[in-house]
Design a protein that fits this description.
Distance between the termini of chain A: 63 Å
Number of strands of chain B: 3
Number of strands of chain A: 16
Shape of chain A: elongated
Largest sheet of chain A: 10 strands, mixed
Oligomer: heterotrimer
Shape of chain B: flat
Number of helices of chain B: 3
Order of helices and strands of chain A: EEHEEEEEEEEEHEEHEEEHHHHHHHHHHH
Strand order of the largest sheet of chain B: 2-3
Number of helices of chain A: 14
Radius of gyration of chain B: 23 Å
Chains: A alpha+beta (about 475), B mainly alpha (about 90), C alpha/beta (about 425)
Order of helices and strands of chain B: HHEHEE
Structural class of chain A: alpha+beta
Number of domains of chain A: 3
Largest interface: B-C, 49 and 70 residues
Amino acid sequence: MMAEDQVIVGLEVHCQLDTKSKLFCGCSTDYRSDGPNTHVCPVCLGLPGAMPVLNKRSIEYAMKVAKALNCTVLQESEFSRKNYFYPDLDKAYQITQYDKPLAEGGYLEIESDEGGERRIRLTRIHVEEDPGRLVHMGNAERGKYSLVDYNRAGIPLIEIVSEPDMRSPKEARKFLNKLRATLEYLNVFDSDKEGSLRVDANISIKGNERVEVKNITSYKGVEKALTYEVTRQKNQIRRGQRIERETRHFIESTGITQSSRSKEQEHDYRYFPEPDLRPLQVQSWVEGIVLPELPDARRERFVLQYGCSLNHARTLTGELKLANFFEGVVAADPKGLSTLAATWIADTLIGELNFRSMNLDRVDAAGFTELIGILKQGIITDKSGIEVLRVMLDQRLKNEPTETPTVIVSLLNLAKNSGDTGAITAAITEAINENPKALEDYYAGKGGALNFLVGQVMKKTRGKADPGELNRMLIEALKKKEA
Amino acid sequence: MVTEKDVEHIAELADIGINSGELVTFTHQFNAILDYFDVLDQVKGDTTVTRDLTNIMREDIVEPSLPRDEVLKNAPAQEDGFIKAPRVM
Amino acid sequence: MEVNELSFEPNDRYNAFLTVCKKAPYGKGKLSGMAIAVKDNISTKGIETTCASKILKGYVPPYDAHVVELLRHAGAAIVGKTNMDEFGMGTTTENSAFGPTLNPCDTGRVPGGSSGGSAAAVAGNMVKMALGTDTGGSIRCPAAFCGIVGLKPTYGRVSRYGLIAYANSLEQIGPMGRTVNDVSTLMQVIAGKDRHDSTTYDRPYSHTPVADVKGLKIGIPEEYFGEGVDPKVAGVVKTAIIRLKELGATTVSCSIPSMKFALAAYYVTCTCEASSNLARFDGVRYGPAADTKKSWHEAYREVRKAGFGPEVRRRIMLGTFALSSGYYGKYYTKAQVARENVKADFARIFSEVDLIAGPTMPTIAFKLKEKSDPLSMYLSDILTVPANLAGIPAISVPCGKVNGMPVGLQIMGRPFEDERVIDAAYAYEQAVK
């Protein structure tokens, strides 16, 4: 890549903290399945006279994150008001942190595009409240208006701001995935909750103005939005046009970014310290925070303890649930099962789940563990194993009654006939008789002939034959025939 | 010295409508008041120290929210449990 | 719980009340059955609360301010909501969207402000006590102008939860009454820590006034008797201070050099905070309807132009300007440093004296419509704002008359020494009774 083509990306990531009550009031954060405006009180509705009181757990969670990301918790931090008008903002200001954030500095290690480790520096972490949610109604002819639901107003957020250290959209995705994993390991964040993570990205091509892309609400969206921007900006530069410093919005459905062209007013947020909250002096709490095992440590442990390959370990520990799933599956016999389980989870299961857009939560862990056991005992072939897994997943997906792998193996008659070699012997005889040309080739020493014959026998046994056993029997039969 | 244009800009920032008659009066009054505020230029230093009371927080305990009819009662317009607001698009 | 009802139908000749509760429920307790008026910027569940502004016309809070809850627990009958300068912005109660309140001592004059309705309700004998709020003198000024007693407590001693904020870092709810004893009684009920107000201290008030100033040292700041203070008012206050000396106190003259910055620091701070506090009044969640067919800025501008009076819009704009990009350091930051200077001056003086005394207001009550220029109105707050900037307790107690109009003696104390301030006022009041 030429230096003048270098992509520079920095992210601002907003994550909802998984507390029970809101940041400044006692309203429950568990609002997603309830009707609009059912989780609000004078404080989060911004009623005149109501005052915020800070949720201690939100600060503890944010500090856990700060410690895990190697940030420095400041000796003193405070909340400020960010003043702007928007119908989802109940008080017409957002309580956030401005010149005295909770923590500064820190870094997150990601796997670079070349496979090594890359350190992405962080600028700061601060705590703030989420605004409400707007629904856009009406149409151009009959008039447009908005509907507001303040249930989300006051949900605690942390904003994690990175330095412009990422060099590609792919790195940005990796950063985000690593960040998500870290937050999940810390048990402060639930990535399954809709809208629990939102990203603004700053992106530029070296030597040009930077563009802010807002409104990215999914993990995949980040790479998509940035890839679009890289192409757009490079094309513009190629055509000799200047890149404007501007804010663009990402349209998830079309995958493009659009200039906001908001001439409404320049942003002048008129920050000043929130007079109804007292400053925080919590630096001394950092020492007492006990961090759980984090993704990097767990990855190393998976390599050492289970003999996982680095790639498998990275995949398995990249999501808390996946790592827990793996350890659950191999719990009964870590030595015996781990290599097989790692392959089956990292290479097979994830692919099958993605293909079905299925969540890991829906996989029957006991059933999967049984399947790995069956495979380990050599009762079925790998090919049959995939067939069984697909049946298991499809049953779950369609909400059909589920069957255990053992039952599925027997229903589909997938067990290898290792004891009874009659069927294989018959298939071998048939295959030899039907393919005289291949036979000729084999005796002539052509390498591909044996594989061809193995394939023919496999076909006839519908994959139930164990490949090793089949190979041995076929060679024996061929020897006999020659003699 | 602020001009009528400045005052107009401030009114926009504050989402306060003003008419042209008021603009003249406000600008005049603003300048008198801001002149008076200039005494603050003589104040030395630009930092303050933190007062007592720090780390005032509550435990993460859920408390009842308002019944929805109480939430909507004061809202001038509503629809299906939502509060109706001006368009933003 | 036993609930009774108090009939309350006052002959309100002074336009003291915005809302009257003709049947006011009350329970048992220290204030059982006592008629208490509450300033209309303090939220009362089920009772319209407007801040004397059109923008809150029809707003009925679904919750009680903490102090109102305490009043109800003490058995008080909340009989009505009192008139005020819109959102507390004024010194005369003329800035009410619902007409001015008149001074019961002379209906051609203002009652002072912004708690003019509460002062008139007490001075006009409609209620025994009332709650006011004091951001830059809004309890003490009307107390002085109407000839009653009013206390601005130490900042953080009384919960502001439910007080519709004008300038959070300056204001306190406080008691108003015809006697120091009444003010003290009301203070007993309302003071103390509130978990909903993070700026409150665990400093309840359980004091009974003691008429004793013997051995106390009282500082007399020269700035309180200087330029702009009506010599006749100054004379009456000096006589009152001599009375305190006769009661056993000693006096010493002192100086508050930071007074030079105090008024500017005050107005910068309160307008900055107000510009943010009052941004939420947009006609969406309460108040007059915003036109939802328009874009939000357009709709908000209409609602806020029609809903706010000129002084409120002026202060919102001043604060918006002072916080805006490029001016924050010149105004807001400097105002906060000036505030620290004021605090430091008071701390220095209070290391040598127990109390500070002077006039509450530089003049007697103005005639209606006498003050039309905003700046000259602001200047009349010069003697009251220092206590708000420093967060210290300050009381105004009647100490004589000029031209037939009451004059207030202001006594200020160290932070959390509201008791001592009350005692000194009580000693004076009992001596001149």
